[in-house]
Amino acid sequence: MKITVEFEECLKDSPRFRATIEEVEGDVGELESRLDKLVKLCIGMIDAGKAYNTANKQFVNGVRELAASSNKDEVIESSLAKFAESLQEMINYHTILFDQAQRSIKTQLMAFVKEDLRKFKEAKKQFDKVSEEKEAALTKNAQAPRNKQHEVEEATNILTATRKCFRHIVLDYVLQINVLQSKRRSEILKSMLSFMYAHLTFFHQGYDLFSELQPLMKQLGGQLDQLVVDAAKEKRDMEQKHSTIQQKDFSNDDTKLEYNVDADNGIAMEGYLFKRASNAFKTWNRRWFSIQNNQLVYQKKFKDNPTVVVEDLRLCTVKHCEDIERRFCFEVVSPTKSCILQADSEKLRQAWIKAVQNSIATAFREQGEEAEKLDRKSSTSTGSLDSGGEPKEKSLKGESALQRVMAIGGNACCCDCGQPDPRWASINLGITLCIQCSGIHRSLGVHFSKVRSLTLDSWEPELLKLMCELGNGVINQIYEARREEVGVRKPTPTDPRQEIEAYIKAKYVDRHFVRRPSDEELRSKVVSLSKQEKRLSGCSEHLPPRPPPPTPKLRPASNASVRSADSGIQNSADGSREMLATTPSTNSLPEAEAAEVPPMAMPATLPPPSPCKEVLIFSEPKEYSPGLQLYWASCARSLPDMAEALAYGAEVNWVNVEDDKRTPLIMAVQGGSLVACEFLLQNAANVNQQDAQGRGPLHHATILGHTGQVCLFLKRGANQNASDIDAKTPLSMAVDAANADIVTLLRLAKMNEEMREAEGPYMQSGDETYQDIFQDFSHMASNDPEKLNRYQQYDPPQRP
């Protein structure tokens, strides 16, 4: 109801005015009461909404957890995840709605109550006070006696002043009343309209959200109908199976255990057996036994790692055991121990004995087949890079690698337990291992030991040379230097696996037996390494000039005649072979044709090799460290000293900040040792780490003309597109030095990379011709390196 007070009426101070004022004051009081109540209800609604949102969030989290636990059911997982996402969006919309309610109702109306109504109340107080003063002045003026002139004048003056003040106050009061009456409508409507628009937005957002979700819900509804039908059918099938099994005779259930060598999970036979412990009490424990991978193992719980009873069934026998009190016992005997087991019945005992005997026969049969395969593979040969169609040896495998590695001192027995005739190796340590110790080494992780078979795996020539440079004797002198001093016994093959595993971890992981050098010993070692061979006077990689050997013959390519090395690199295997077949060298092209390929053209007469620009001079460092020993040992080609530095804790990517930030791998390049580079790479050296000039190992190998090292780095993932601070790539350096071998390798690697990118994930291992040529270069670098020392080195520009 709109109530307006006229200004003229207030000056008369008539009864009508007073009645209007009372009505206004009553209306304002009621308004204040209702607004206070509305604000309190709004606060309660917001608090309840926040509590609802909190509970809703917990519910959504529960839905997400249920989806995560249903990862085996893709439909349930994806559907619940989508529902949880939609419900979370609704929670966000609710949060926005409650925030808008707080702004529009609580904040806005409370401001109106506190500010406008407070001004009205203050104006009312002043009006009431001046009204009382006016009434008092009128009364006093009326009571003034006629004969007392001074009282009459005093009363008249007071009345005049009071009337003047009353007019001023009553006009302000009326103004405040009219303003309040006008503002109350806009404030209330504005706040409520804002709140209603917030609801409108909330429901629009919810509608849009669930409109997008509706197709999925309809789809799931259709699937749900089918799921209900399938569930009913599965229930009937299970009830039928249940009834059928209940009717079976279980008295001969132990005959169901059968040996199956072709089982999908690799477990030929499994079941419960009692095992007699080897302790003094000879206790019997029931365990779950299985025959798998030609081993007899058992578990106490499903999640436990299997405990191996017999490592290799080929070395054991099985027999009845009738000399003990218990029934249905049999014994599995190996060269190192025996294990007495008990079945639940005589039929089960016979089944297990037969299964072990069949496993022994199967293991011997598989060994014979594998040996036959190895013999067939070792007899095959492919074309040679050196002699065209003559046979050559690529990566060594089987007995050839085994014989060469076993010829090294100490390698005839396992490095850790002494088991004779080991057939496994750790390639980053350079040692041989028995099958049990190799399994323990695998469990250490590849950052400690990389295990490979000496008979089943292929061996690249540089890796085989690494194994021949080290050996068990060298490594044990390093890693067991303090073993006797600390009083630890070296394990034997008959010791429990747990003891051997603890010893190996103490030896290689904790390095308890490594003798740490004193500062003076370390200094003497570093100085000695820095002075070996010709490292102080210059590089020793380059040999006197010699006539270039015949160009390696490549695999036959297409019949097309190609004149230029850069003509039409195709993204197909045929195109790649054309490119490889046309790589120029001094003997593969006539003089006129060689002139057509400037980037790879060779001079008619090779100039004598220039001396190495960078002379490696040893200067007294600020401090001596294992990293510095590794640095100079890499340059001196001393693998035992490199292995010793790593055992001392040297960082394989250690940076010499006093020498252009070079790394041990760069120094191995400077030293010219292919096997030193391979040793560092096998121990996680970074093949792309650059020095202060922005040059990585591939740059340095190209500068020095080390073709074998360039081949090795490209095989190990070196970045051939990296530029130094002079914007020189390895390819541009090789072209400037006219080193056709290195140019060939770099261009082949680049082309193979482009082919792999073009063919995508379907090209797994690269072009066959590329692989063959890189194998040939690796073979030549390891077994006949002099043939690759036929070009002058690159002479890098001197920086001011």
TrEMBL record:
Q: What is its main location?
A: membrane
Biased composition (Polar residues) is annotated at 558-574
Keywords associated with the record:
ANK repeat, Cell membrane, Coiled coil, Endosome, GTPase activation, Membrane, Metal-binding, Repeat, Zinc, Zinc-finger
Q: Where is the composition biased (Low complexity)?
A: 379-388
Among CDD domains, the record links this protein to: ArfGap_ACAP, BAR_ACAP2, PH_ACAP
| Source taxon at top rank | Eukaryota
| A single GO molecular function term of this UniProt record | zinc ion binding
Look up the coiled coil feature and give its residue ranges.
Answer: 113-140
Identify its membrane topology class: Peripheral membrane protein
Q: Could you tell me which residue ranges the PH domain spans? A: 266-361
Region feature (Disordered): 367-397, 524-590, 781-800
Q: How is its activity regulated?
A: GAP activity stimulated by phosphatidylinositol 4,5-bisphosphate (PIP2) and phosphatidic acid.
- Domains: what does the record tell us? The BAR domain mediates homodimerization, it can neither bind membrane nor impart curvature, but instead requires the neighboring PH domain to achieve these functions.
Q: What is this protein called?
A: Arf-GAP with coiled-coil, ANK repeat and PH domain-containing protein
Name of the gene: ACAP2
